[in-house]
Design brief:
By secondary structure, the protein is α+β, with helices and mostly antiparallel strands. The protein has helices spanning 2-31, 80-89, 108-134, 152-156, 175-184, 233-257, 269-283, 288-310, 318-331, 337-367; strands at residues 36-52, 55-70, 139-140, 143-144, 146-147, 162-167, 170-171, 190-196, 199-205, 208-210, 215-217, 220-221, 225-226. β1 (36-52) and β2 form a beta hairpin. It starts with a helix and ends with a helix.
């Protein structure tokens, strides 16, 4: 039964995150007159299909993402010269108007807006989810309410009640940001800017590795919460939550690429289902509202993750297509469509390899 609920929650979260991304592409494409052939949630064989107008809407069996397929996208065009000679033989003119509804024939700015709309809608969804969350939960301020005896923080002179303002010059707004910092910390002194009785100061702390927790720690804890949001506080803390999640995803990607993030910390769809099950098991004793808030938190992380990941300048991703659009805008002319299509095809093959690797990594994390 727990597994059934885990899968159900995963499908709900996955659908909302993916649909928001693809809807962003879809609505901006339509606004720019670009014809959308397919709107897909999932990949593989379709378990639901419906055509309305020019667009076929599909729900597919594999929950590995989604796609908004524009008419003419990634087609391998014939050489323009060959096309010109063929048109001439058929009695047509090179000056014949192009079908502007084809993706390659749209203006570079229209294609740019259409492509970037997917990640933007992920961040919009994230903001909505974060706003709901901050109105349902207590927010932990970045305050050291207690200092562990003999800890690095105590030795450096940090005191209970001190508010952490910055770590190594990076501004801190939530206590979770301190936890993120120590999770990715791998050695060296840390310049801590703090506020005590309204006066700011600086001190240097060298976090100590804790065998029990398997990570480096300052030696501080926090039990301070914002108990009641007033006025525009909800929007302020919504921004803090969004900022924290974007920074979390960005730094985690950097740590993964540099080998500072362990393989066990990487999850695909199977791993997320398992994560959902763990969340349900750990939070259900505290009531359904606690489960719901934690699912919102997971949705926030996933939608921000999808938005940031898709902005990476990697072929086949939105970021790779944005790069080609930017190059066209700067050059004043497009890169040959056939060459661009081959680049994105190579990127797609690479992404499929990564998907397979992540899938087997999920299985390894679960069963070993």
């Amino acid at each position: 039964m727990n597994m059934l609920f885990s899968i159900l929650w995963f499908l709900i979260i996955f659908s909302i995150v993916v649909v928001s991304h693809e809807f962003g592409h879809f609505i901006v494409a339509r606004a720019n007159g670009i014809r959308v052939k397919e709107f897909m949630v999932g990949f593989g064989p379709a378990i639901f299909k419906h055509k309305k107008g020019d667009t076929t809407y599909k729900i597919c069996i594999l929950p590995l993402g989604g796609a908004c397929v524009y008419d003419g996208m990634d087609e391998l065009y014939d050489d323009p010269k060959d096309g010109a000679s063929e048109n001439a033989s058929e009695g047509t003119s090179d000056s014949e108007p192009k079908d502007k509804a084809l993706f390659p024939n749209a203006s570079p700015w229209a294609r740019f807006a259409t492509i970037i709309a997917g990640p933007v809608f992920n961040f919009i969804l994230g903001f909505i989810v974060a706003f709901i969350m901050v109105n349902l939960i207590a927010i932990r301020e970045p305050v050291a309410t207690s200092i562990m005896e003999g800890s690095a923080a105590e030795e450096a002179g940090l005191q209970a009640g001190d508010r952490i303002i910055a770590l190594n010059g990076s501004r801190i707004y939530l206590y979770d940001e301190i936890s993120l910092f120590t999770a990715l910390y791998r050695g060296g002194e840390v310049l801590v800017t703090y506020e005590r009785d309204g006066v700011r100061g600086n001190l240097v702390i060298t976090p100590v590795y804790n065998e029990e927790y398997g990570r480096y720690l300052f030696g501080i804890s926090n039990e301070t919460f914002v108990e009641e949001l007033k006025g525009l506080d909800a929007f302020k803390y919504t921004w803090y939550e969004m900022r924290y999640n974007v920074v979390n995803v960005w730094r985690s990607l950097g740590a993964l690429l540099t080998g500072r993030l362990a393989r066990e910390n990487v999850s695909g769809p199977v791993g997320v289902v398992n994560m959902v099950g763990d969340i349900i098991e750990e939070t259900s004793p505290y009531g359904m509202m606690t489960v719901f808030v934690n699912m919102l938190n997971l949705m926030l992380l996933l939608t921000v993750n999808l938005g940031v990941f898709n902005l990476l300048p990697v072929p086949a991703l939105d970021g790779g297509r944005l790069l080609f659009a930017i190059i066209e805008i700067l050059r004043g002319k497009p890169i040959e469509p056939k060459k661009e299509a081959y680049v994105h095809l190579a990127g797609m093959v690479l992404l499929m390899v990564i998907v397979v690797i992540v899938f087997f990594n999920d299985l390894h994390n679960i069963f070993y």
